[in-house]
Design a protein that fits this description.
heterodimer; A: 309 residues; alpha/beta; Rossmann fold; 5-stranded parallel β-sheet; 4-stranded parallel β-sheet; globular; B: 423 residues; Urease, subunit C, domain 1; TIM Barrel; 2 domains; 8-stranded parallel β-sheet; binds zinc ion
Amino acid sequence: MRHLLDIQSLSSEEIHGLLNLAENVKEILYRPIPKVPTLRGKLVLLLFYEPSTRTKFSFERACKVLSADTMSFSAKGSSLEKGETILDTIKNLYALGVNLVVIRHSLSGTPHFIAKHLKIPVVNAGDGIHEHPTQALLDLLTVREKLRTFTDRKVAIIGDIKHSRVAHSDILAFQKLGASVFVTGPAHLLPEPKEIPFFEVKPGGFKVCLKPREALQDADVVIALRIQKERHGEAFIPSLREYAQNFGLGPRELEWIKPGGLLMHPGPINWGVELAHELEKYPFQVILDQVENGVAVRMAVLLSLLSGE
Amino acid sequence: MVRLIKEGRILDPSLGLDLVGDLLIVDGTIRGVAPSIEYPEKVDTISARGCLVIPGIVDIHVHLREPGEEWKEDIESGTRAALHGGVLRVACMPNTKPPNDSPEVTSYILEKARERAHVKVYPIATITKGQSGKELTEFGRLKEAGVVALSDDGKWVSDASLMKKALLYAKNFDLPLISHCEEPNLSNRGQINEGILSAKLGLKGIPFSAETIAVVRDLLLLKETNSYLHLAHLSVKESIPFLRWAKEEGLSFTAETCPHYFTLTETEVDGYNTIAKVNPPLRTEEDVQAIKHALKEGLIEVIASDHAPHSPLEKEVEFELASFGMIGLQFLLPLSYDLVRQGFLSQQKLLEYLITNPARVIKVDPPNFREGSPAEVVIFNPEKDWVVTEECILSKSKNTPLLGRTIKGKVEAVILGEGVFRL
Ligand SMILES: [Zn+2]
Ligand SMILES: [Zn+2]
């Protein structure tokens, strides 16, 4: 593995390898002094061309635990606004001695684009509506910790599937490890019929459902996505209350899933819209486990990309 | 100067000519075609054995980028590429900077062409001022200045009422309208064909309906106005039945496609390959087959290149920021000849699609081998393989997914008036 650009190009062996590594290094986070010298002297560049606090902090934390140095910038005040091309920016920063680039960008394929032009590893921290591979890895790790196996598990994803890079990575990742993925949400925010074959990784492993209950029934894992009312001036849903009433999860919906089924959300959550307030107390809600596993997974990614050097 | 082209397969779709023999050119003018011509004096003999000898191709969909984007292409470089592709007349699209929406810009283009063009250049002007889709341009004055057609290419005239006015007003001046069929709300921010690849790459898809809805609306307006319309660069299977309907209705229209729509598929963009980003986008194998069958059926009867040069500045960027378009002048004839090899078109039919039909769209006499016509002759070896390299591309821009590939069929020589170019 030279880069981590997306889930689609990873084999199930590579995914398991990363999860095993993440599980091993997670222990470091619980030490009195959670720091190891493994990546001392390595310089990691965090390029966030799109606002993000969670993912950026998570990567930063992972770097610090492993003793890697970081440089970071966010879109504001970057060269982007001065009309410099991203390629110029990257090449200049590379000349400063960077060992690895983590990039978040609002345009799909930007990490792939810079990876073509750089000799150092590139990690995709979310690109446009394409993929968010480290999010999928942390979701997998969380499920593996709680449920141990993936085979014959049913994973339900509810929300704006079409524009969610998290959903795209999760759909591929869970199937690669043997689970089936059922997606549901407003029909115009589900994959186009012509796009569905791509998401079917294993035969029968992917299903698009119009009725939330069909997706949720007996699910082992439920992932609710963050809903955006509009994007680029295009309105996606009539109103938040309409969404909450029809596609939000509450106690009634959780009755449908398997007893002990996990509830996940990539955050940030709109409480009262995607998830009813009562669900904060749902015993199998693992949203904070996801955050913690995010650090472990990102440590594993950094280690496997930088240790070969 | 006397030139004798010997032993070629001589084809001319406007004369229905098809014979193996010789073609005589005296002082830049066609002087005869016969199985064997002996000339008493010393002549410049050009052997065409194993080659087709055909009139120059007429490409009515070319972006020469001048004025305004000369770093991509200009009239000199674009027409040089045309000459090397056997394209001896080009009609240039008006989406320049500024757009060709006034007689002044038209005159500028014609003057530049007179000074520097290697082949005949016909300007096309916009339908609406500034291509803004709001107000018609001065059709009469543009015609007077020398435009042969009108098109907002790059954009569809989405205001149906305005398009209807344009279709009617164009009749006053016998000016053909060329429609870039793309419903802009459906294609808004779209990058590539909607399908497997758009899902894989996380790029917004351009659905077939964006093209087909535009085609249908335009055909309905045509029925209502009894005018004439040319539909540019069709790419999807779903548009074809409506062309059949329009033929049955007896509407006066012609439809065009480009070699990339019957040669390449969406898989070219995999890996975020911006070089293959084009509008309309490359579609699926099913669409490729449908376009070929539509050519065979005569529903699409013009092939043009939609030559759209872009430099690395517009292409070596994030996929969603990259410009749409690929160059095509030098590949138009060889790629189209595949249709003959695959049995979709006869040689004669193919030449109609490349020479006489496009000439009819812009209402000019096509290049031909009638005695007394100026020499516009292309010698094409359909069996010769060549590798596409940056060096053999004469355009300033090299944006084509064909780079590095082997193409069958090469233009060996061009005789244009007094000039002869051995390529
Ligand atoms: Zn166009
Ligand atoms: Zn065009």
